[in-house]
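Field reference: sequence -> structure
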Amino acid sequence: MGTEITAAALTVTITETLALDHANGATNDIDFAQIHTHTYGSIANISKRVIKLANTNETVVANFGSTESAGTFIQADVRYIRVTNLDGSDTLQLGLNDGASDGAFLKLGPDSSFVWGSVTAGDLEVEGAHTISAFDDVTELAVKGAANQQLELVIASV
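Structure field:
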């Protein structure tokens, strides 16, 4: 008999630290530290990949649909997506497409991450010539960057 993976909670913590000094000789820094933690329950599937872009063309790094297959995640099950630009100097363009020539792209700076959390049906609205009215309409996660640019992609689902 085979073993079965039991779903568990994914805990994501974002830590920001900043202390500004008054420069008056006293130790009276103003602390702007912030810690934000969120837990995503019942995560049973996680995909973590480092991807090296072959060229500057748009590259689909994940597909979303109603059934799971190689490189395709079930839309309704996805709870968390993180893309990290591992390049120290080049910007990465990151976008979601709906398969009908509509999409929304943003620029992700060097050594930066973008997180979609709680990505369930109806949580994502992007407008273009037509409308991607919900995450259910999204069929692809695509990127554009420099040749040989690397990114890390994490997708967690129930």
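Note: The first strand starts at residue 8 and ends at 16.
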